[in-house]
Write a structure and sequence with these properties.
Elements (H helix, E strand, L loop, with lengths): L4 H41 L4 E10 L8 E5 L5 H4 L1 E7 L7 H15 L7 H19 L7 E7 L2 E7 L3 E6 L2 E4 L6 H11 L5 H5 L18 E2 L4 E2 L5 E5 L1 H6 L13 H15 L7 E10 L3
Antiparallel strand pairs: 1-11, 2-3, 3-4, 4-5, 5-8, 5-9, 6-7, 6-10, 10-11
Helix pairs in contact: 3-4
């Protein structure tokens, strides 16, 4: 027994050293993370705040029922908490698409007010929402989610599926979130094989979602660093019914006037095209302008 004692002492000292090193690592990481947040908050606080103008539309199209749902956080809280906008599009042809899209935005509303500096936690909360919906519906339905949080001239976004987050700046449109559908998987395979991507878009399964709310542990796309917003930027959060009718790169020509005018321009253009298979189309338009709130 006496011969074993030195070994136990050495092992105990080794474990103590490992524990202290691990603790020190997390303390240093935490302090650096907190300092980064304080620096970001300090930088934001020095800027003149942009004001926001918000409008929306939510149309059925040629579908038998509305399967889109949306949420806009109270605008009177913009100065304190920013604004959160979410759109959820129920997966067409499945039994509970409308229920799941509505439940998704209700649960997003319950998360508010969100911490702007907790994007990773928010993405995890979205994953938990999807898991709860999975437990209830067991893949008998699903929905997309496109969500932005704008605070102090910066924006975070979160995305699951193929609804769109579009930034229009200086007459150019950019879709910020990649679509999580089968065509993206096909394109990667074709590129690795040095083949043309044309066949990916021609595939009849190309629009099938590979990630969605209602799936177990979906991959939530989110901003690891906030996006800086500028005077005259316009952010559009929409279901894919909008960009099915209006190509995303032509959207800037409808961006003039206030948010309500932009919403009317987009809604009336989709309606005028009278596509026989027009999906539900829902959009929230956020115009940013220079000026104190």
């Amino acid at each position: 027994m006496e011969e074993l004692m030195p070994r136990f002492i050495i092992l105990a000292l080794f474990l103590l050293l490992v524990s202290m090193s691990t603790f020190s690592f997390f303390v240093i990481y935490y302090l650096r993370h907190i300092k980064a947040i304080h620096r970001s908050k300090k930088a934001m606080g020095k800027e003149e705040l942009l004001s926001i103008d918000v409008a929306y539309f939510c149309e059925v199209g040629k579908r038998p029922r509305q399967e889109d749902a949306y949420f806009i956080s109270p605008l009177e809280e913009f100065g304190k908490n920013g604004v959160v906008v979410a759109i959820s599009d129920g997966m067409g042809g499945l039994k509970y698409g409308d229920e799941i899209s509505n439940e998704t935005v209700k649960q997003i509303e319950r998360l508010c007010p969100l911490s702007f500096f907790g994007a990773e936690k928010t993405s995890d909360d979205i994953r938990k929402i999807s898991n709860r919906i999975y437990e209830q519906y067991r893949l008998e339905g699903g929905a997309t989610l496109a969500m932005v949080h704008i605070y102090n001239n910066y924006m975070n976004f979160y995305s699951v599926g193929d609804s769109d987050i579009i930034l229009v700046r200086n007459g150019q449109a950019t879709i910020l979130n990649p679509r999580q559908n089968y065509v993206s998987v096909l394109i990667k395979k074709l590129i690795r094989g040095n083949k043309t991507t044309h066949d990916a878009y021609a595939n009849n399964k190309s629009r099938a979602l590979v990630e969605f709310i209602g799936n177990q542990n979906p991959r939530v796309l989110y901003t690891t660093a906030p996006i800086r917003l500028y005077d005259s930027d316009t952010v559009i959060v929409s279901s894919d019914g909008l960009t099915d009718a209006i190509p995303w790169n032509s959207i800037p020509k409808y961006i003039f006037g206030n948010a309500k005018n932009i919403a009317l321009n987009l809604k009336n253009t989709v309606k005028s095209r009278s596509y026989p298979k027009q999906d539900n189309y829902t959009s929230v338009i956020i115009s940013l302008k220079r000026g104190l709130l």
